[in-house]
Amino acid sequence: MFSKQDQSQFKAKAIDIKTIEEQFNNFKTGFPKMKLKKPATIDDGIMQICDDEQDIYQEVFTAHAKSLSLLKFVPASGAATRMFKSLYDFLNTYQDTEDEYLKFLCNKGPETMFNFFDRIEDFAFYGDLRNIVSENNMDLEKMIDKNQFKQILAMLLTKKGLNYASLPKGLLKFHRYKHFSRTAFEEHLVEALNYAKNSKGDAQIHLTVSEDHKELFEDRLDKTKETFEEKYNGKLNVAYSVQKSSTDTIAVDTNNEPFRNEDGTILFRPGGHGALIENLNELNADIVFIKNIDNVVPDRLKEITYKFKKVLAGILLERQSFIFDYLKILEEDKNISQNTLDEMLAFLEDKLCTKAPASLKIEDPEKLKKYLFSKFNRPIRVCGMVKNEGEPGGGPFWSRNSDGSVSLQIVEGSQIDKQDVRQTNIFERSTHFNPVDLICGIKDYKGNKFDLPLFVDKQTGFISQKSHNGSDLKAMELPGLWNGAMSDWNSVFVEVPIATFNPVKTVFDLLRIEHRNL
Length: 518
Description:
20 strands
């Protein structure tokens, strides 16, 4: 099937032929769907923390933080193209006629072009837009008065001006303060300096970026680093990595044959955010905070985020201390009592929400010890969950695993069988939503780093229909970073306030009160 040219292409991308063959087989057979048992709900898979407990868990984190290495990990490689889709559509279709203008005036909803131009001064990027327009010998206020909508959008979105549609979200101005504005990237730097500093005051933050944008991030950091370090009494250590080409996936045509470019080479596509498990695997820290680049707020609303980051980290450290103690006993004590084994099993099921398979014979001490050791000796994550208010995306569920156990998983709609009424009903009964608010422990009880790809469920990828240069193709995404890539981790789900979840999916989200510094 593969020529010498193909094999040279695989070698250049550092992808072995076995991986390619596995991908082809997945295209032919498809991926199995998730087997949901029930939604995770309050006191049935999701912890609800009262005020007193919140204080206790914050104290647990604070007491241990100075002796731990902390790291903030931010996936930040995505471009802002989708964020400006409605603006681009308007730019490409609006005709400057009287009829079109009357339609524009009548369409005054919260996410309409009328609202965009009517409130354009409320955007944090307004000052930059006005300056770039001025540099081109134009006057933004006069352009607005003259309804020169297309010219304004061209200056915002394209290379003629700010080129916002081609920049990564992290480098867009999100929030305006009295004397300055901040990008999403800068808001993450502020967060890191407030909850991810070690005993020396160093805050480590790692961003995954595209190769094309890395220098832009570095330039932005150079402009603000010293100011932030002085204001928040710490030192920023910022590092970057790009998604590895070895995690790209092969594309096929509608007959499951390799999809080839005009030059005969095989088309590869990025494997999705699940590929970032490889980037995470190269990092070394006791505690890793993971949060999406667009989920930030201005300073006036940050305190609740700081608080619950510490609460989640405190829960992780508390759970982890029990796990490490149990693993040492399992390794060193040859005569563990049945009562102690029963205690461990109860902890696994009640505190780590992993239910043993029916086939496990708990009265057989040796089999039980092996089972407990395998389940305890895994990476651990504590995931914040917000109440479901109609946001698209994944949620928390109890799911059956291939070994017969039942555990907590974050599941996307694409992972379930939509033809199965029972599975669809379970998915639709979800009470909570995954905001991507994770605290991760990636070292074992001996202080060694886990090899994270070993804990990926490769059968949780998915196939989608795409096109390339007008031709239909099928593309494959790897198991998502917080879905299948962390499927075989110990997982603890905790309810967090909706105020900690304020993503920016479209430019109009920046007009919400949560993103304005009133």
